Amino acid sequence: MSTLAYLKSFFKDKDVASVTPTSRFCVHTVCQPIDFSQDITIVEYGAGAGVFAHYLLDQMTSNSQLYLFETNEILFKKLQQIEDPRTMFYDQSVEYVTEWLPEDIIGQVDFIISGIPFSFLDAEVKSSVLDQSFKLLRDGGEFLAYQTSGHLEDPLRDTFGNVKTSWEWRNIPPMTVYEAVKR
């Protein structure tokens, strides 16, 4: 994916947290819990130019679904170049994610992948996004996130009652990777 698109977005949009696309190492670390042999539904927050989307679509079954959210106009245009019938695009904020997604997938999502910079959100919005994420997931569904620091651990534990963290150093910048399961 284009580092130039990320650089332009970083300087024009206060909500873009990185100057480079996520590394393949970070993508693999974040996606490690996903069983791609099953039909799955994935929602991605902050899909950028599609680094995760391309990887996911290459792995997913033909009956799986991928819902992508990206508010940055430059990155959204790049994202929309993906031509795959399993993919739905939203240039909307995940602050209202349960209002945008089809009603029939509420409580049925297998995985949510999030790269949005939660540290940029105020406590109320952060809590709302996590609460809506919990509502979107099926029992056993997982919230998978990557952030530049460990700030998301307590909010995830408050919402999900559990969280695992790991590090991916082979990314610029290095990332804290989170995994929380809806139980």
General description of the model:
By secondary structure, this protein is of the alpha/beta class. The protein has a single domain (22-30, 37-181), classed as 3-Layer(aba) Sandwich (Rossmann fold), CATH 3.40.50. It has helices spanning 3-12, 24-31, 51-59, 73-79, 97-100, 123-136, 153-160, and strands at 41-45, 65-69, 87-90, 109-114, 137-147, 164-168, 175-181. Strands 3-2-1-4-5-7-6 form a seven-stranded mixed sheet, sandwiched between helices. A hairpin with a 6-residue loop joins strand 6 (164-168) and strand 7 (175-181). Helix 6 packs across helix 7 (153-160). The longest helix is centred in the C-terminal third of the chain and has 14 residues, at 123-136. The radius of gyration is 15 Å and the shape is globular.
Write a brief structural summary.
It comes from Fodinibius salipaludis. With 183 residues, this protein is an alpha/beta fold.
At the first level of CATH, what is the class? Alpha Beta
Q: How many discrete domains?
A: 1
Low-confidence region ranges: 3-17
Strand content: 15-25%
What structural class do the secondary elements suggest?
Answer: alpha/beta
CATH topology: Rossmann fold
Biggest pleated-sheet summary: 7 strands, mixed
The helicity comes to 25-40%
User: What is the oligomeric state here?
Assistant: single chain
Organism: Fodinibius salipaludis
Protein name: Methyltransferase domain-containing protein
InterPro entries: SAM-dependent_MTases_sf
